[in-house]
Inverse folding.
């Protein structure tokens, strides 16, 4: 029987993988990955992405080998490689799970048409989301721009079907030429990834283990702990979701099977709902990766200050909660959600630097960098997105730190030079008397930077810029 090519992209798992499952039902399967970063347009994978991808593909290749299957790895133009592999193996069908990023959606539609023209049968599946973004519409048939009604609608039409089992690869086929994952040279030439390596284990098995831990140990306190960067209170499943090592349906079922009526579980699933909302937005408003959803912000007078940008990127703003977040990001490729909101508010409102700069930096440094979530997170923070936080709600980095990192544990972990400061000053070292600074071993301006701007002055300036924007 002619084999089926399963073109894997961003769905590096065996379980609950509809393309793989249905292909295996039809006969022999050729699991194929094509490394084609240029096809991702302006959002080609950054350094941290590539690190994760290397390990995710390695893990998938090992999992497939242990089931008598083989991951075929190619590099080049996706359509050319698909056609070549079909020619080399006599494949009659190509299956894949859909992607929703604007450049990839356009590419995949073109590839689908070209494969059909070449007499190949094509089937695509929905597995990255709980809902097809086209399925969720207002009663008037429009896309949503506000989260609460969006999520209410989603919950009313949700597909709660059980996740699919992993497929049985019980028919063999001749394999085409393949590169090794190492040949893709995704790992950095200079090894900067030590902190990332120590913190993360990419791959399907690690994703399932983390979900199990979270559901057993942390979900019931999620609602209270999720805003606390000093606690291990969130699932940290974001990079696993980003690479499709676990599906949202597996999470949905895994959570509800154990905690059908729990407040923490409900709160957690609504965060999965925010992920659905981000994809809904990027699908219906693809221009938002570059342009504000709220057009009023097109005229915002962003500042072009490279020195400020570099100090923000490196965690040297002089505001401890901001710097702790940026240093956490640099070291482990991830940052707590509350702190992402604080650093994003700081960049766009205290420093008045365009959210594009923040989104780009996150894209290069996050292991979970996801075009939908990143775009939505930055637009929301800058005040220009759907259901955005109003511009005038400007996070105060001191009170945010005191509220969500009350003992300064998070700041002390990422800024060890402040570790001896008393709790009272940990979020505002500039207020500490000289004798306290010197007994804590801190010389401001030498061991730790002076504040880059005064927050209350910056706030006034930001409000002025906002007030001057044309009304919609
Ligand atoms: C400026 C900014 C940029 C962001 N960039 C990204 C990004 O590139 N990739 C990314 O996955 N998330 C991004 N987020 C959303 C959020 O910060 C992360 O999803 C979350 O911190 C991941 O940690 P977790 O898995 O422990 O989350 P949990 O609290 O355990 O949540 C579970 C899952 O729900 C989803 N989720 C949670 N919060 C949000 C949210 N606010 N918006 C959309 N989905 C959410 C994620 O998939 C997450 O893994 C961004 C947020 C902001 C404010």
């Amino acid at each position: 029987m002619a084999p089926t090519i399963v073109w894997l992209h961003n769905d590096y798992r065996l379980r609950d993988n509809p393309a793989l499952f249905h292909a295996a039902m039809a006969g022999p399967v050729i699991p194929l990955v094509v490394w084609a970063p240029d096809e991702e347009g302006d959002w080609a994978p950054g350094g941290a992405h590539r690190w994760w991808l290397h390990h995710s593909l390695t893990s998938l290749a090992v999992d497939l080998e242990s089931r008598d299957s083989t991951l075929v790895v190619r590099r080049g133009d996706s359509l050319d490689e698909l056609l070549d592999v079909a020619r080399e193996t006599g494949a009659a069908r190509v299956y894949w799970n859909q992607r929703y990023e604007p450049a990839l959606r356009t590419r995949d539609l073109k590839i689908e048409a070209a494969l059909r023209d070449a007499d190949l049968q094509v089937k695509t599946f929905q597995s990255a989301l709980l809902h097809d973004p086209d399925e969720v519409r207002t009663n008037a048939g429009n896309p949503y721009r506000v989260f609460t009604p969006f999520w209410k609608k989603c919950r009313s039409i949700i597909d709660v079907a059980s996740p699919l089992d992993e497929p049985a690869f019980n028919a063999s086929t001749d394999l085409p030429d393949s590169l090794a994952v190492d040949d893709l040279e995704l790992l950095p030439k200079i090894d900067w990834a030590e902190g990332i390596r120590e913190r993360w284990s990419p791959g399907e098995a690690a994703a399932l283990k983390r979900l199990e831990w979270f559901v057993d140990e942390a979900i019931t306190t999620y609602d209270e702990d999720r805003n606390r960067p000093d606690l291990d209170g969130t699932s940290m499943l974001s990079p696993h979701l980003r690479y499709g090592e676990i599906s949202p349906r597996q999470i949905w079922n895994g959570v509800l099977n154990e905690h059908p009526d729990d407040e923490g579980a409900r709160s957690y699933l609504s965060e999965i709902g925010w992920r659905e909302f981000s994809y809904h937005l990027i699908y219906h408003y693809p221009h938002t990766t570059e342009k504000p959803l709220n057009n009023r912000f097109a005229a915002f007078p962003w500042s072009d200050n490279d020195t400020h940008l570099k100090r923000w990127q490196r965690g040297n703003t002089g505001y401890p909660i901001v710097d702790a977040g940026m240093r956490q990001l640099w070291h482990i490729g991830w940052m707590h959600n509350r702190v992402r909101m604080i650093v994003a508010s700081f960049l766009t409102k205290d420093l008045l630097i365009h959210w594009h700069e923040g989104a780009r930096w996150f894209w290069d440094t996050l292991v979970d960098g996801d075009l939908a979530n990143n775009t939505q997170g930055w637009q929301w923070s800058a005040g220009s997105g759907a259901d955005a936080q109003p511009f005038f709600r400007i996070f105060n980095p001191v009170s945010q730190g005191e509220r969500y990192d009350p003992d300064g544990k998070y700041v002390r972990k990422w800024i060890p030079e402040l570790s001896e400061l008393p709790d009272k000053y940990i979020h505002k070292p500039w207020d500490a008397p000289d004798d306290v600074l010197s007994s804590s071993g801190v010389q401001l301006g030498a061991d730790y930077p002076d504040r880059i701007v005064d927050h209350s002055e910056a706030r006034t300036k930001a409000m002025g810029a906002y007030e001057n924007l044309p009304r919609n």
